[in-house]
Design goal:
Helix content is 40%, strand content 12%. The chain has 376 residues and is α/β, with parallel strands linked by helices. The protein has helices at 21-34, 42-54, 68-79, 98-106, 125-128, 152-162, 174-180, 213-222, 244-255, 257-277, 302-314, 342-350, 362-375, and strands at residues 62-65, 89-93, 110-114, 137-143, 166-169, 190-193, 206-209, 284-286, 295-298, 351-354. Helix 1 crosses helix 9 and helix 11 (302-314) crosses helix 13. The protein folds into 2 domains: 21-255, Type I PLP-dependent aspartate aminotransferase-like (Major domain) (Aspartate Aminotransferase, domain 2); 257-375, Aspartate Aminotransferase, domain 1 (Alpha-Beta Complex), CATH 3.90.1150.10. The chain has 13 helices and 10 strands.
C-alpha cells in the first residue's frame, strides 16, 4: 500500500461551476455602455430586484455585498452596531466556518463559543436564554450549518425576550431557502454567500435578506461606507459593496438557476439511491435539508470517520471535515472563551464531507457508497 505522500486525488471534494463566458457577454457589454463598475450601479440594483422578486419580497428586500463575510458584517452593523464596553461579546457556534466569528470580531465583538444541539447542529435558542454570559452579549450570530435552515420564529421570540440582537449566517443556504420557499423575517436578517463554492455563486459576493425594506435600506448604507443618497456618513459602516462585474455573473447565474437546481437534485438522488442500495440511507445528508454542494457522511464514531477518509484517499477521493474540529480548537485564532463542547467535538469528528459537484459521475458516487459500506 502506498504511503500518504504517493496518494493522487482523482476526484476533488468540490469542483465549482459558474456561468459560461458566452452567458456573461451580454451583461458585460452593458458595463461598457454604462461605464459604471461599482458603487451600487445598475447591474447590482437589477440583481437585488430579481433576488427580491425570487423570494416574493417587495423591492428593496435584498442588499448585495462584496462577499458573504461582508454581508454578515453589514447585517451586524445594521442590526447591533459595534460592540460596546457593556456588551463586549458575541455568542456564536463553534461548529461553523471561521468567517462567522471573524465578522463579529471585525465589528468589535469578542466571540464566545457555545455548543450546538446534536439534533439540528445549530445553537438552541431555549438553551441560550439561560446562558450565564447572556448579560454581556451585544450580539448572537446563529449559523445555519451547511445551509440547514434555522427556526427564525424561535429566534424572533428569543430576541424579543432577551433584547439581544440576532443575525443569521446562512452562508451556504441560498438553494435550501429557495427549495423550502422559506419566509424571510422582518426582525432577523439572514446573510448568504455567493462564493464560487456555493450552489448559487458569482465568484465572490453575498447578500443580506430581510422582509423589512427599511432594514435593507440601512444595510445598503452600512456596506457603502455610511453613504446613502448624500455625501454624509451615517452610522457604523464598512466598504462591502458588490462590484458590477460580480453582479453580471450573478445575473447570468440566475438565468440558469432552474436548470442548475435540477442538476443538483439529480446528483442528490444518485447519492441517496447509492447509499440506500448499500443499506446506509440514514448516513448520508445531501441536498434538501443541507445545501446541494455538500454530501455529508455521518459516521458512527471518530475512528470510523478517519478510516473512511483514508480508504477514500487511497482510491483517489478527496474528503474534508468542512468545519475542522470547531473554532474553539483552531490554533492561532483568538484564543476565545468557550463553553464545554461535547456535541461539537463529537459531530465535528464524525461528519465527513464527500465529493459533491454537478458533473461528478454516477459511477463515482456509487463507488464512494460501496467504500463507506465496507468501512462502517
Amino acid at each position: 500500500m502506498p504511503d500518504s505522500s504517493q496518494l493522487v486525488t482523482r476526484i476533488p471534494v468540490l469542483r465549482p461551476e459558474l456561468p459560461t463566458t458566452d452567458a456573461l457577454v451580454p451583461y458585460l457589454r452593458s458595463l461598457e455602455d454604462s461605464r459604471i463598475y461599482t458603487n451600487n450601479g445598475p447591474m447590482v440594483l437589477r440583481l437585488e430586484q430579481r433576488l427580491s422578486a425570487y423570494f416574493g419580497q417587495p423591492k428593496g428586500g435584498v442588499t448585495a455585498a462584496a462577499s458573504g463575510t461582508a454581508a454578515l458584517i453589514g447585517a451586524i452593523l445594521t442590526k447591533a452596531g459595534r460592540a460596546t464596553t457593556g456588551k463586549p461579546i458575541a455568542l456564536c457556534a463553534s461548529f461553523t466556518f471561521v468567517a462567522s466569528a471573524t465578522a463579529a470580531q471585525n465589528c468589535g465583538y469578542a466571540p464566545h463559543f457555545v455548543d450546538i444541539s446534536p439534533d439540528h447542529w445549530a445553537l438552541d435558542p431555549d438553551s441560550l436564554h439561560n446562558h450565564p454570559r447572556l448579560h454581556e452579549a451585544g450580539l448572537v450570530v446563529v449559523t445555519a450549518p451547511f445551509g440547514r435552515l434555522v427556526d427564525l420564529a424561535a429566534w424572533e421570540a428569543f430576541e424579543a425576550r432577551t433584547g439581544v440582537p440576532v443575525v443569521v449566517d446562512c452562508a451556504a443556504g441560498f438553494d435550501v431557502m429557495v427549495r423550502a420557499n422559506a419566509p424571510l423575517s422582518k426582525t432577523i436578517p439572514v446573510a448568504v454567500s455567493f462564493h464560487a463554492t456555493k450552489a448559487f455563486g458569482c465568484g465572490e459576493g453575498g447578500a443580506v435578506f430581510s422582509a423589512d425594506p427599511d432594514f435593507a435600506l440601512r444595510c445598503h448604507r452600512a456596506v457603502n461606507n455610511g453613504f446613502l443618497g448624500c455625501r454624509q456618513v451615517i452610522g457604523d459602516n464598512t466598504n462591502g459593496k458588490m462590484s458590477e462585474y460580480h453582479a453580471c455573473v450573478g445575473m447570468a447565474e440566475l438565468d440558469r438557476w432552474a436548470h442548475k437546481q435540477t442538476r443538483y437534485e439529480a446528483m442528490a438522488t444518485t447519492y441517496r439511491n447509492a447509499f440506500r442500495t448499500v443499506g446506509l440511507a440514514d448516513r448520508i445528508h445531501v441536498g434538501g435539508e443541507v445545501s446541494a454542494v455538500y454530501a455529508l457522511c455521518h459516521c458512527p464514531d471518530a475512528m470510523s470517520a478517519e478510516t473512511l477518509r483514508m480508504a477514500l484517499a487511497y482510491d483517489g477521493y478527496e474528503t474534508r471535515f468542512w468545519y475542522g474540529a470547531g473554532l474553539h480548537a483552531e490554533q492561532g485564532f483568538g484564543p476565545y472563551t468557550h463553553d464545554p463542547m461535547p456535541n461539537t467535538d463529537t459531530l465535528a469528528s464524525q461528519l465527513v464531507g464527500l465529493p459533491a459537484y454537478l458533473d461528478l459521475p454516477d459511477a463515482e458516487m456509487e463507488q464512494i457508497a460501496a467504500t463507506v459500506a465496507r468501512v462502517i
